[in-house]
Structure formats: structure tokens, C-alpha cells
Amino acid sequence: MLEKYKKAGEIAKKVREEGKTLVKPGVKILEIAEKMENRIRELGGIPAWPLNISINDIAAHYSPSFDDETIIKEEDLVKLDVGVSVDGYIADTAITIALSEKDKKLVLAAEKSLEEAIKLVKPGREVNEISSKIEEVIKSFGLNPIVNLTGHGLKRYIIHSEPRIPNCSSNYHYKLKKDDVIAIEPFVTRGRNYIKEEDEDRGLTYSLVREKPCRLKEAREIINKMKNREGLPFSDRWLPVKGIKLKLAMKELKDKDCVEVYRILRGDSKIAQAEHTIIVLDKPIVTTL
């Protein structure tokens, strides 16, 4: 198990660092996503979720569709959130690339708060001490943590589990245990300190949460293709169905509560993110560093 977590982390680190070089003005985010996901596969892992490329005030959950025309612009703040699974053991890491000098303070605050938080990780540590440190460091830059986005535990085939790692002091209490696997991910902004789910049911990233009989052949095909992911999220880009047939199939799967939809999470100002995965031991292992 430990070796699989380490391998997933090594792949995620390599792909994350290679991904940085792809983020340039004029490049389609679809091209970046497909190159990075294919690289994960080449290195012996599978994408634990469709690569997230969240730009500016979008905090998370933006992954391009098969026909996405979004292009990186000159002053964008681009977040790459990479997930790698090796036999269900997951590495979760993220980086922010500032294409404008004025946004580099956001990136620095995210990275520094993550660095200081990791120093506190050990068995028996109260999570709120880590959360308070994240908030303290971010506010020392004159910036705000996003209070309703948190770090989280990782389990086999489960990308969000206990414990939560809030990005500010809270009344949530949990003492880290030996062998816990956690992802710490500060989100930093100049604007309001919370994000909202987009109202639009954009529906480009899904998890198959249950299997039920379906009328449409295409819905049955999607279930058959995605059930081996054991609930890990998938993209419409990975499906054998396109166009109106895809829309109708996904509508049936949503109506039957077979899939969970990941909606875009958005703030009101540019947001930076940094993230690593840590195995809680007396000498913690940061698998993605």
C-alpha cells in the first residue's frame, strides 16, 4: 500500500511539473488536459479525476469538455489540480501559475501557507492547529483564505474522506492518526472569503455512484465503461458517446441518481491554490513533493 501511494505521488509530481511548462497564452486548456492525462497513463497510473484547469475566479472543478475552446489568456491565473491513482491509492496535488506579475503574491501565499501547514503534520496533531496556521500565514500577506473549501482525507478509491483540513480556524476537531493520508490545499484570494457552486448544471465531470437498469443503450454503455473506476470521477471526454446521445444518456443517469455531478466552484476575485498529499507518520511522507 505504501509503495503504491509513493508511486502515485511520484507520477503526480512529475506530471504537475511538466504541466507548468504547458501553461502559456494562446494554448487551449483541452490540449493541456489531454497531454497531462495521457502522461499519467504513460507513467503507469490512471487519472484519479479529469485534470482540473481552473482559471482566475474559478476555484475548482473546471475540466474541459471534448469540444472546449477555452484558451489561456495573457494575465490569467491558472490552477492545475492533478490526481493520480495506482490501484486505487491516490495522490492529489495542485499548483497555480501566475501569468501576471501582480498575481504572484497570491501564489506565494498559497505555497507558503501549505509549506508551514505541512511542518505541523504528525500523529496526534489537532487539525485546528494546522487550519489556524494556514489562516495566519495567508492573512500575513493581507489576503483571505477560502473558508468553505478544505483539505481532506484520502482512502482507496475515495478522493474526499475524513478528516477535513479547513483553511481557517474552526470548531472542527480531529486528531491526526498514524497512517492517515491527507491532502492539504490552501485557497487564497483578495476577494470574498467563500465560493459558490455555479447554478448551471454544467455536467462535464461525473462520478458513477450506483448502477441501475437504464432504458437508453448509451446510458448502459457509460455505466459499463465507467464502473471499473470504482466511483472515481470521469470526464465526458472519456465516454464512447457524443453529441445529443451523450446529453440524453447523462440526463437519464442523473434522473436515476446514478451519477454525481461536479459543479464549478467560483469566487468573486482571482484565487490561487497549492496542494500536497501527506502520509501521517512520525516522519511524515509528502508523496507529491
Shape: globular
Mean pLDDT: 96
**Separate helix tally:** 6
CATH architecture of the largest domain: Alpha-Beta Complex
CATH superfamily of the largest domain: Creatinase/methionine aminopeptidase superfamily
E-strand count: 18
Could you describe the largest sheet, including whether it forms a barrel? Answer: 5 strands, antiparallel
Distance between the amino and carboxyl termini: 18 Å
User: Approximately what portion of the residues adopt beta-strand conformation?
Assistant: 25-35%
Looking at how many chains there are and whether they match, the oligomeric state comes to single chain
With strands numbered from the N-terminus, the spatial order across the biggest sheet is 8-7-9-17-18
Q: What class do helices, strands and sheet pairing give?
A: alpha+beta
Helix and strand run:
HHEEEEEHHEEEEEEEHEHEEEEE
CATH topology of the largest domain: Creatine Amidinohydrolase
Given as residue ranges, the uncertain stretches (5+ residues, pLDDT < 50) are none
Number of domains: 2
Whole-angstrom Rg: 19 Å
Query: What is the helix fraction of residues, given as a range?
Result: 25-40%
The level-1 CATH class of the largest domain = Alpha Beta
Task: Quickly list its features.
2 domains, Creatine Amidinohydrolase, 6 helices, four-stranded antiparallel beta sheet, alpha+beta, five-stranded antiparallel beta sheet, Arc Repressor Mutant, subunit A, 289 residues, globular
